[in-house]
Amino acid sequence: MTERPDGAPAQPEPQDQPSAPPAWPPRQPGVETQQPAQPPHQTPTQPQLPASVQPQPQPQPQPQPQPQAQPQTPQAQPTPSAYPYPSPQSPAGYGPPVAPIPHQQNPYGQPPGGYPLAPTPPAAAGGAGRAVLWAVLGAVVASAAWAGGVFLLGGDDTEADLRGYQAKANLCSSVDYSSFKDEYPEEDTAPVDNALEHEALDQNYCSISLKTSSASTISDAYFSVQMELHKKTDPGPEFTALWSEYDQRYDDYDVEKVTGFGDEAYLVTEDSTSGDDTSGSRSATLAVRDGWMTYEMRWSAYGSTYDDVSMPEVDEVVGWLKEDTTSTLENLKSIDGV
Asked: Region annotation Disordered: residue ranges (predicted)?
């Protein structure tokens, strides 16, 4: 070691160079970071400054990593964390926490959250579809039932079976009641006669007052005839139900099925008198169905203790009804109709 000449300034001692701080933040994969500028080494030729005025090294600003463009193929990006701790993939160190790298939109990649789903078409109204199906099936079944009913029972195209009977504008002119004239010789000069004509039904009615003499001020008995021509429906079932069960409505009536008149006939009689007491009522009706024609001939009489009018027996009247019905039905088949 050489001796310093007198008056020469003292040479500064070589100072240890501070070691460079570790790079922060840690280097991310695929991200290029710039190294901080290293301070120039001091040479021993620089004079040593007093400790009081020794300049302190200024901290260098840490350069922020520059995000680079994402490649065409989408890659999984680190999920930002809401917790102020380093990412588990980076080593624990010192300094401020790493700021999350903002997500870069890729104009050519899949948008965040995936592509929006296509609007789902409304579900087919299954209930409405089934309702329409049931409606169609119901219509088919109803049509089949209607066709079967027309085939079995006859529809509008079925020709009415009138057996040659004709509706009359004046039914009383065609009624024969000659069997009753021996008991009731007085002629009725104003019989009741009316008629109804319709595409479904023709109806004729005649009512005649029976008197034993011209001295009678009121009718001694009542006589009527009614004929109906059913042109749309067969009256058979209703006719049978009405006359065969006529006695269900009145206890004093008797019903008897008779033959010799049309397809079916019933005789209905009633006698409320007792013995020699003529007070009460007597009646008899002969109902006939011939095809789709229905017919009734009725007789009824009423007696009391205040008059001396005698009434014929019911059995006698039944014979008159049968005889006159035969001739009257023949008259109703004549051509002179409505």
From this structure: 1-126
State the DSSP string of 67-114.
Answer: PPPPPSS--PPPPP-SSSS--TTS---SSSPPPPPPPPP-TTSPPTT-
- Domain coordinates in residue numbering, the chain: 171-331
Q: How far apart are the first and last CA of the chain?
A: 168
pLDDT in tens, 274-305: 776 678 899 999 999 999 999 999 999 988 77
Residue 26 contacts residue 93 (beta carbons within 8 Å)? yes
CA-to-CA separations, 202 to 3, 155, 158, 293, in angstroms, rounded? 165, 19, 17, 10
What length is written for the chain? Answer: 338
Residue 31 and residue 63 in contact, taking contact as beta carbons nearer than 8 Å = no
Q: Would you state the CATH architecture of domain 171-331?
A: 3-Layer(aba) Sandwich (3.40)
306 — pLDDT class (breaks 50, 70, 90) = confident
| CB contact at 8 A, 148 and 140 | no
pTM of the model: 0.54
